[in-house]
Write a structure and sequence with these properties.
alpha/beta, 13 helices, 2 domains, Aspartate Aminotransferase, domain 1, seven-stranded mixed sheet, binds pyridoxal-5'-phosphate, Aspartate Aminotransferase, domain 2
Amino acid sequence: MFEKIVVPKELIPSDPRFGAGPSLIPSEHINILLKKNRDLLGTSHRQLPFKNFVRELYEDIRTYFNLPTDYKILFGNGGATLLFNMIPLGLVKEKSLHFVCGAFSERWYKYSLETPYITTKKIDIEYDKMPNISDIKLFDEMNEKEKFANADLLAFTQLETSIGFELKSIPAKTNNQLIAIDATSSAGVLPCDFNNTDIHFWSLQKIFSSDGGTWMSILSPPAVERINQIETDKKRFIPHFMRWSEYINNNDKFESFNTPSIINLVLFHEQLKKLKAIGAQRVLAETVEKANYLYDWAQNHKHLSPLIENEFFRAQTVATIKIDSKIPADELTKYLREKNLVYGIGGYRSVAKKINHIRIALFPSINFEDLKRLTKLIDFLLDNV
Ligand SMILES: Cc1ncc(COP(=O)(O)O)c(C=O)c1O
């Protein structure tokens, strides 16, 4: 469909990576990795150089996220997906309630449902009936069903990467409830109210421009207390790899439970330092500016429209854009990939089967000028098809 089109040079983004994860890793961070060669890479995670590195990393996390001093920082191998198992197994006493708004929150709910010892309920917005989700009454519905009141853990996905849906608010927890937030595509840009959050977690491969396979989590004192209760009870079989206490014991000593990906942690730290220098407020403002630009572009285009109709729920860090059915998104993304112009803007697998759309990351590493070029490039292709 697009094969014969020749794209003018000035429309080509300086970096082709617009994927929502794994995301663009800045080349200068790879150069820094080379400098860490010998003194950190390929050395033990139980020795001083690594421990000093983790200590500094923790300080930067605490400052950037403005964390209460008694909150714990943990990390481990496995990515956020591992926590979809660790949370139901190690942090839910009897019942969890999941707010499901896309493929990742659905997966977390399913893993929870499969967990013995607990019961799991969900409230969902029937995201697969997209895009008719403009009139959902999110938390009113939760309260109505009264399930909210007797769950001891509430699970939210702050930013559903699969459909570009963002939760702008999280309901206040009641006594003895824990709130767990999957912030995989939002941590680092969207704020978190730690007074109303007990488990906040993400993978390093999104906003923090690192590679896949490492999770990071921030735990409140009540979450740590819950872990202790459940593990000392010994009524559950929890595999060692999924025991929160193993991570707490090691991470508290600035070590890691098993051998970590130091490369991932170094890349993460470099991005964190960059964001810290910009400041959290400005990072958010710059992202909002990019998101406004992109959604305005889609809204005013004759072949495009934002996938999430209700602008209140449009994600700031991952935009999903619907395309006229005459122009298959697959063909567009295939052409861009094969010509090495743009990578990673396809829709999430299950959603892409139902809705003709593309997904564009608006993470801090994605340069605004490149984003503008990307929109002009798509304009050009759609005008010349
Ligand atoms: C919202 C959300 N949660 C969880 C995950 C799983 O992360 P990982 O593949 O790093 O385990 C993803 C991955 O894209 C995600 O977007």
